[in-house]
Amino acid sequence: MKEIRNFIDGAFVATGKTFEKRSPVDGQVIALVHEAGQAEVDAAVQAARAALKGPWGKLTVAERAELLYAVADGINRRFDEFLAAECADTGKPMSLARHIDIPRGAANFKVFADVVKNVPTEFFETPTPDGKGALNYAVRRPIGVVGVICPWNLPLLLMTWKVGPALACGNTVVVKPSEETPQTATLLGEVMNEVGVPKGVYNVVHGFGPQSAGEYVTTHPGVNAITFTGETRTGEVIMKAAAHGARPVSLEMGGKNPGIIFADCDFEAALEGTMRSVFANCGQVCLGTERLYVERPIFERFVEALKKSAENLKLGRPEDPETNLGPLISHEHRRKVLSYYEKAKALGATVVTGGGIPDMPPELAGGSWIQPTIWTGLGDDSPIAREEIFGPCTLIQPFDDEDEVIARANDIDYGLACSIWTKDLSRAHRVAGQIEAGLVWVNSWFLRDLRTPFGGMKQSGIGREGGVHSLEFYTELKNICVKL
Ligand SMILES: NC(=O)C1=CN([C@@H]2O[C@H](COP(=O)(O)OP(=O)(O)OC[C@H]3O[C@@H](n4cnc5c(N)ncnc54)[C@H](O)[C@@H]3O)[C@@H](O)[C@H]2O)C=CC1
Ligand SMILES: O=C(O)/C=C/C=C(\O)C(=O)O
């Protein structure tokens, strides 16, 4: 049986306690994961603190950037191993991970290496009473040891999205991957060693949240800042933990994102984009569209077309090139998603397609498979329209008027993402400007430029990461004033 160890101070560390990692595809145990206790988290934080003062802390920006380029190349060199590990942990189709998860995992290091090399800081000349003046300039310094708490849906991508900029800025990290997806973060430890990243710069501790590695990292006084992606309620707990020592947090949390489809849209493009935004990664994308508003003249046609496309999705093993829908991450998560499927029926939804567990061949019957599901017939007040489900499902409702749909899209506690589909560019700008979300796409979805700000409003998040915005979180900006 494969064993997944912690990565602390450049070494792979076993502990006396392991937990099982099961495949979402067939339910079989695929690895035993060594759970970090307080002692291992202490060791990881200590290693990260020591590394700040070691060779890592003495590198120039250009030298650090070179090392991060080497990390990206190291991931690409072992692309197939990362791909296999990510798909084994998540069950996601290899066709998806090959194009999104692994390339982005590598790109996150290159992009932020470039950002730190190229971003200037401020300079001001200040007049003084003696007429000689003063010069003010700002410098960025690392914030220290960053605790990185990660989810399971895009494990390598979302972890490196934080580790890339954190290291580019000269910090060191203690990463706590999701208990569901321990493999790629660990494999990255091997790459760090291979390319010569000094020991202690990148540390990984495995385990759960409360009374386990997650809590030990976020409550550790040696951790200077915490960055988190995951569920909103977990983010609240982490924010409380960070209050001790007044430590900064960056929180990327849940969403209940609307898609708005106007009758004048490019129908086929809107259909294709919506298929991805609802069903990609089996709906386990925080940017996904779980609420669809379709303008009444094309409502029936769009529902019918989405149903047809959803029914053509091919569930299957990750390595099958035909597969475009994997299982949910776990049986526990499937229980949550199914509870919404049951709730929708009980509330009187029209189940356009899906609504349950698919028949799978016997060898896959132990996996956490679920049917792609579309509902109509429920209103904005229903829990199906208000609560994040995080599954391959969406509620479609008609609308009649622009102001009405803006108000309905905004009437929610979340504010992460929105997609607007229309050929009328004036309307696109007008609506985009009024939507309460950190990310608005027009005639697209998940079109990501890593230099742009990423994050949510309301209960979807605090802070923005991406491009120079990541520098705001991962550095301390210091002003130096020189009297002439
Ligand atoms: N916005 C996003 O990107 C994501 C949102 N989710 C949402 O979260 C739901 C549940 O997924 P989970 O992975 O269970 O999310 P979660 O928020 O429970 O877990 C995310 C990470 O936080 C850790 N964690 C949990 N409790 C903690 C605590 N008290 N202190 C420190 N660390 C803690 C977990 O071990 C994991 O590494 C999903 O159903 C979905 O609604 C999940 C993944 C990504
Ligand atoms: O950074 C990205 O491009 C992707 C972000 C996706 C999420 O945060 C998510 O699905 O959880």
Write the layout of secondary structure elements.
Elements: E1 2-4, E2 6-8, E3 11-13, E4 18-22, E5 29-34, H1 38-53, H2 55-58, H3 61-77, H4 79-90, H5 94-99, H6 101-118, E6 123-126, E7 134-142, E8 145-149, H7 155-168, E9 172-176, H8 183-195, E10 202-204, H9 213-218, E11 225-229, H10 232-243, E12 249-252, E13 257-261, H11 267-279, E14 289-295, H12 299-311, H13 331-346, E15 350-353, E16 373-376, H14 383-386, E17 393-399, H15 402-410, E18 414-415, E19 417-421, H16 425-434, E20 439-442, E21 457-458, E22 461-462, H17 467-474, E23 475-483
Parallel strand pairs: 1-5, 8-9, 8-11, 9-10, 11-12, 13-14, 13-19, 14-17, 16-17, 19-20
Antiparallel strand pairs: 2-3, 4-5, 6-7, 7-23, 12-22, 15-16, 18-21
Helix pairs in contact: 3-6, 3-8, 6-7, 11-12
The structure holds 1,4-dihydronicotinamide adenine dinucleotide (NAI) and the ligand O=C(O)/C=C/C=C(\O)C(=O)O.
Task: Report on the architecture of this protein.
The chain has 484 residues and is of the alpha/beta class. The protein folds into 2 domains: 3-253 and 460-483, Aldehyde Dehydrogenase, Chain A, domain 1, CATH 3.40.605.10; 257-450, Aldehyde Dehydrogenase, Chain A, domain 2, CATH 3.40.309. The protein contains 17 helices and 23 strands. It has helices at 38-53, 55-58, 61-77, 79-90, 94-99, 101-118, 155-168, 183-195, 213-218, 232-243, 267-279, 299-311, 331-346, 383-386, 402-410, 425-434, 467-474; strands spanning 2-4, 6-8, 11-13, 18-22, 29-34, 123-126, 134-142, 145-149, 172-176, 202-204, 225-229, 249-252, 257-261, 289-295, 350-353, 373-376, 393-399, 414-415, 417-421, 439-442, 457-458, 461-462, 475-483. The strands form 6 sheets. A 7-stranded mixed β-sheet has the order 15-16-17-14-13-19-20, sandwiched between helices. Strands 10-9-8-11-12-22 form a 6-stranded mixed β-sheet, sandwiched between helices. The chain has a 3-stranded mixed β-sheet with strand order 1-5-4, with no helix packed on it. Helix 3 crosses helix 8. The longest helix has 18 residues, at 101-118. The mean pLDDT is 98. The structure holds 1,4-dihydronicotinamide adenine dinucleotide (NAI) and the ligand O=C(O)/C=C/C=C(\O)C(=O)O. The site of ligand LM24SWP5 has 12 residues, from helix 7. Belongs to the aldehyde dehydrogenase family. One of its GO terms (molecular function) is aldehyde dehydrogenase [NAD(P)+] activity. It holds the Pfam family Aldedh. The active site is at 252.
